[in-house]
Inverse folding.
């Protein structure tokens, strides 16, 4: 049987929900106050789950210090204190909904986590709203 | 791969654990102080999980504002500040254990969430006790 | 300079807000859904603060095991899984608002905590509403 | 002895730390990544404390439903999903540090809370940073 | 469809990460400050998940009071206020990583939970690091 | 009116409650399982409060990045992943109760925080037990 390990990280960013292929009216209708042209922001909480076999020598699935640094280098240093729509390549053309942010975080991390390991991310946008990818 | 979205809601209610087909002695033995004839109560926390495909236009699985309103209209407005045993149809003949409350919340919401979407509810009765349906 | 120690405890109870000297209409108007005749309930969280001098031998203000037992014996065993309006002497004629519950908890504990020690209680009714006595 | 009541509320906003009387270099040096020209954001948590005498008829210091609505009308509806620097009058010329946001929330609410009541606000910018005004 | 019930418990223990088959240098390199010869410690949070069919008479999967006592008798009384490396049989030759502690808790509880029930444990070592067995 | 700022930090350490001037029997009686000769441990949470005047240029009481680094350099780097009784000068002859740890943290930080600023520390030993110095 496999074991899962989880690491929690945080980043604070501004965003607006906006799909440039839609009209302003459609964006306003779909996204309401989340479409505010001047942006709003969140304290995002990211939880990264890695599933694999226990290494009998270390007693680790993966070294959580390594996972902590991986998340810092590739995700939180990239997004923390940024405007997701303006300051990042990832959301120039992708609407930064919690769902899409989780998917992007997954895709970034997937390249750096060995293929023998399963990966999943959970992203909290608020204490009441959160998402998971893949489900 | 699919994405999961979660919405947290809360309601405060009174209940007692009691199965009317059992004798008072059996109820007292099975349910202990939770069988108190005058009721006790909880701050229930309900987390609703919906799993589906990401809509490429909105970047949503479902609009979380819609899910928030759905939970409010069909669950929390129905149960908040109520006595579950006395004030609700659902628990007139169903023992309001956390397990049964979760199942009832699921059954209520299932009718309003499209069949292409998976649904699961988690219900916290206390910070130490919680349940999930379906598992 | 003095030191404060805090102990957190919890109890789950039913109540309704109702002042028997008022008419039903006045109670309904003042207390809204909290006046529901069949009661509702909460997971109350009680935090007891004791302030005093550090004992140089033990390094304690008071033994927190003693404080834990004191709260259990005099407060949480008394109120847990009870209907505050029906099952307790304290709230037979006192409206069990969070403010009054905190004050009653303070008055109960005050008798058992040495007069050289300051005492204060904080009571959470929900994650968004809490009170403190004395302020 | 008086009683304190507390109400917690939340709002999500974008901001940047920037004092327009300083040069860009000075702003960058003083505020670091919080000075990002494109803004970042937070899930602010606001806790409002009101201290007064218990009303013997209601068992309330103030009606927490009233306090909830007051905070919503005057604070969270004003700041939620806004860019504090661009979308609000209060922070056009005031640097939106947590300290200043707390002070502004206090000043707004102070006008609507009776002078016989003491008022204090606590504002969480992150789970690790928070402020209180007045201390 | 089955239902899951969860029970949360806590224990405070000292440990060090150390594999006696490795040299001191290798242990220091692998485990860093977690290898401190004098130990450090944690407030471990254990969440036990049991999945099964709802009993139509009780409305329970299993009685959570029974599960609470089971965890106390077999896990938290065994590990609380202990040095995992020195005071327990389980970790005399097993490196007490969070992964291994979770696995040991699972193996202990598995013997006492009926085979018709699925079992899983989650163990928090810190608010940012946690593991789950089986995944 | 002054403003308070708070910074939260964490460290994980082993300790035992033991006063070397007392006999083993007295220590065992006073401190119970906390006296375990092989130590146990905690995830300590430290909250540092600084009270002062708002700087009109920065909108800060003190720069929270500075306070974060100060706590890291002088407190958490010193105590994290340590055995407080064996690895630290501060608790060689001082019983590491939560009260004494809070007082030591205060005394360490007091030297580095300007005398025009008030200082207070709160230390959580568990989610249910915490202390504050000075009260």
């Amino acid at each position: 049987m496999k074991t899962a390990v989880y690491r929690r990280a945080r980043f604070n960013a501004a965003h607006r929900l906006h799909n440039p292929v839609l009209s302003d009216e459609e964006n306003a209708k779909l996204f309401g106050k989340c479409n505010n042209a001047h942006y709003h922001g969140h304290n995002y909480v990211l939880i990264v789950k890695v599933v694999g076999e226990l290494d009998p020598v270390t007693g680790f699935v993966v070294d959580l210090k390594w996972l902590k640094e991986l998340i810092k280098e590739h995700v939180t240093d990239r997004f923390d204190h940024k405007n997701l729509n303006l300051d990042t390549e990832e959301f120039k053309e992708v609407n930064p909904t919690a769902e899409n942010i989780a998917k992007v975080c997954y895709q970034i991390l997937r390249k750096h986590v060995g293929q023998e390991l399963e990966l999943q991310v959970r992203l909290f946008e608020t204490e009441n709203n959160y998402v998971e990818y893949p489900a």
The radius of gyration of chain B is 16 Å. Residues 17 and 116 of chain B are 35 Å apart (CA to CA).
